[in-house]
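Researcher: Quick test of sequence recovery. Tokens follow.
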């Protein structure tokens, strides 16, 4: 019985940890469009700063992550106007507010008078603000200029004041998004 309980506990802990580490992603694509001929890519022009980013350091990190991930998938970056597809991205960071009217806790202890337990329940409001980031990566067919694929990740942003942690988070997010490209 004890071994079975420990096995269940380990399984639940593994599920909980993997759920915390997963990066939510989704995709949309032009159905029926054949992406199998795509071999080379280039950056789509961003003359009007439509990517929504005014931080050059983060821009370089995102661009490097996209290039590294695509090249690891055997696509080649070309510095010409005639690649097979163009890639672009957009990053939106917005402040969100969440609230809860209920919180609770359980405590157990032992004192000189014996064992005791208590349950606490609070109905006071708790308001919390956080930043939610949405990274969109778009693929356009170069020949027709048709938007053929979009990958998206929207998530609450952790505190990433350390540049190394920020780079690792960007790399993981871009890899998770582009893992879906090309769609199967």
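Model:
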């Amino acid at each position: 019985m004890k071994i079975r309980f420990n096995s269940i506990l380990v399984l639940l802990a593994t599920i909980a940890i993997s759920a915390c580490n997963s990066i939510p992603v989704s995709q949309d694509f032009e159905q029926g469009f054949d992406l199998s001929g795509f071999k080379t890519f280039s950056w789509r022009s961003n003359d009007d700063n439509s990517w929504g980013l005014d931080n050059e350091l983060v821009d370089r990190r995102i661009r490097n992550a996209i290039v590294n991930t695509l090249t690891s998938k055997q696509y080649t970056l070309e510095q010409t106007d005639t690649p097979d597809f163009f890639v672009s991205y957009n990053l939106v960071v917005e402040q969100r507010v969440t609230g809860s009217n209920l919180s609770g806790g359980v405590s157990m202890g032992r004192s000189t008078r014996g064992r005791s337990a208590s349950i606490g329940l609070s109905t006071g409001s708790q308001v919390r603000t956080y930043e939610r980031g949405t990274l969109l990566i778009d693929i356009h067919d170069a020949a027709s200029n048709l938007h053929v694929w979009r990958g998206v990740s929207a998530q609450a942003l952790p505190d990433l004041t350390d540049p190394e942690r920020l780079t690792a988070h960007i790399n993981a997010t871009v890899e998770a998004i582009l893992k879906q490209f090309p769609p199967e």
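Residues 5-20 have pLDDT under 50 and may be disordered.
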